[in-house]
Structure formats: structure tokens, C-alpha cells
User: Fold these one by one.
Assistant:
Number 1:
Amino acid sequence: MPLFFFDLVNRVGLVRDDEGREVADLEGARALALSSARSILAEDAVGGVIDLRGRIDVRDEAGQSVLSLDFEEAVEILYGPPPQPSEEQAEQ
């Protein structure tokens, strides 16, 4: 399996991945980057801060950039009042 490197860029700076992870293909690398970004955001949320300015840059074995996943792409932010329950839900 190909080796990919997942570099984190956030408010701390650049955290370079020097070990890499074996992943089947680029689609698998994107899925791993997405999962990693969501884990980072979840950990930050526990501390009361969600900083969507970060990203994960993925490099292949040759060191070439193959994708960049912005934290904004990892989550959907919903705003506004909470949805009202349906009549059926309210009766339960």
C-alpha cells in the first residue's frame, strides 16, 4: 500500500508528519484526513473553541502534495433556532 504523510497546519503552526500512514489510495487518504480533522475539532470543542482555520495537507511518498483538506470542509455548521418537533414526536 502507498505511504501518505498528513501534515497539520493550525494556530500552533506546522506539525509535520514524518512517519506517514499506509493507505490504499488517495480516496482513503482523504477519508483519513477528514476523520483526523473531525477528531481535532471535537477535542478543541471540549475546550470551548472551534477554530476552522486549520487544514491537513497530504503528501505522497515522493513528498508531493496530493490534497489539502481545510477544517471547514470537515463539518457542517447549523445556525438558528432548534427545529420544532413534529406533532407525532411531541405526543411521545
Note: Residues 54 and 62 are 24 Å apart (CA to CA).
Number 2:
Amino acid sequence: MPARGESDEKRLNDCREACRKLFEQYCTAKKRKYSRVEFTGVGGMLDYAPDPADEPIVSVRTPTRRRIVIETKQKFSQQDRCRYVLVKKADRWLIDSKAIWKGHWREAML
């Protein structure tokens, strides 16, 4: 029988590794104040099925050829207005940052 908590530790490590792979594949490589993989926590298992209709795009700006700013309005939780910045690196678009509008743009977790 495994030691108490051993399966929880494995689940946490598996989650962190999966998050690390997602960040490597879809996000720019930079030090982040929030969304650091080493601080990823795992709660109970959730049935999560993302639906683009729950966070529709309300505007898209292209300030430069290598930068896109996408604003969305969530239809769940606190119905936040979000801003995602994508940058083009080596012919791939990567998520660089996320911010939430709270009277002004505040950095948020990816």
C-alpha cells in the first residue's frame, strides 16, 4: 500500500509537468509574476469543458505585425473583461500575457 499522501504528490507532480508542457508549447518563455508552474496546486477533479461561447472575443487589435491584443468578455464567474496579448515568435503565435479589467488593466494568471 502506498504511503499516505504519495498519490497526491504524484498527482501534483503530474499536473505541474502537464502545465510546464502547455506553457512551453503555447506561451512565451519569460519569468511570470503569476502562473508559475512550480506553484501549481491541485484541488478536486473538475469536469472542465471549455466553450468559446463562454468568453466571446469583443475586439482584436494588431498594434504591430508581431503583436495581437485580444479582448474578451467572460459569461461566467465574475464576468470579467480580459485582455490577452499574443506575440509572433519564429512563425508561431504565443500567449505573452493576460490582464483583467478592474478599473484598470491588472496582470492575471494564465
Note: Helices lie at 6-26.
